[in-house]
Amino acid sequence: MASLLASLPVQSNSVTRYSTQCLRRTFRTSTRRQARASPKHKSIKASDLGLIKQNEARTQVSAKDLRPYSEKEKAALGKRYTPEQLAAVEAGEAAVDPTDLIEQGAVREDPMKLNYLDDFSSIHPVVDKPIRAPEENYDPNLRFKTEDELAEDLANWVKDMPDEPERLDWMKFMDNTRLTVGKPEAELNPRSYLAPELPKLDILKRNTTESEEIDPSTRRLMRQTGFDYREIRRFRVKNLIQHRVVNQTRLGKISSHYHLTVAGNGKGLIGIGEGKSAEPEEARTQAKNAAIRNMQPIPMYEGRTIFGDVKGKVSATVVELMTRPPGFGVRCQSLIFEMCRCAGIQDIAARVTRSRNHMNTVKATLQALLSQRLPEEIARARGRKLVDVRKVYYGGNV
After folding, report:
1. Which letter does DSSP use for residue 136 in this model?
2. Which secondary structure element, helix H or strand E, spans residue 351, and what is its range?
3. Whole-prediction pTM value?
4. Interhelix angle for 83-95 vs 71-78, to 10°?
5. Which tens digits make up the pLDDT trace of 157-196?
């Protein structure tokens, strides 16, 4: 009996201790959040790794690089420019703060740079954060006017109405009359947490009747290229080559149709596409969509001819394209003529040497058009300054 009584306090203490632990538990469905673990390695800044190049560029620029012109340099500039031009150059450089050339004139190269160049002069409704009204414009006691209050405003306007009212007076009354009672800013410029509306552009408007007639392949082409249905219809498309091909397999001869098409907008865009299918119409559609998808811009001098003489070679076919003066026309074979017509070239001469395979001729012509060297690039490579004399003296009307 004594041993049993001696064991009772021990059991009561254990029960009390167990109940205390149960009360301290947090009864939650989620697991308890663990303490934040200390980092295994120390934090390293981007400047320590040499990833930030902008600060290095700023430290390299010193006051010696931004010093004014010396007398010797002014004498050298005076041989090229007139005194009026030299004074204009000095006035323009004096108006620019040298610190702006160092801090704002450089393009950012740090890891936090933007993916696009922006002067921050305009707000993009999708990329940038919207400009919202201040919180002071919010009025919790704002309410609409009753019918008696609106009738009173109308009576006051009729009382102060001129002897010969005009329609403009009524329009001013409708624009200036408030419909609520409270802060004027709460009605004119309310505080809202909604995203701003996207700008309404005429390009985004599509005719419902046309959208119902668009086939799935054209819809896919519109999503891939970004062109709308009207722009795709305006493109100049010409089927250059078409023939029937046969593939010999163990099951027999499988015939299909091959089409080579060129497409362009007549303003410097041109592309070629190939299509092959068992049905001629399906092959033609594939070639047309591929040509529009592969369109690339080509440089054009004065919007009518190419820059200099270029050459393109595909396999054994060599195509030479030569620039020509205004009014010369497009004097070349039919395939190159159609390509120049799609691209918008008006004055050019062409010569096809060696092999005259039609497929290689089209591909070599496109290669030659894309391999043009601009005069600005040549002048920059030679360290010279290029001036178009015809544009300076004749305004480009030659």
Report:
1. G
2. strand 348-354
3. 0.48
4. 130
5. 888 888 888 888 888 888 888 889 988 888 888 887 776 6
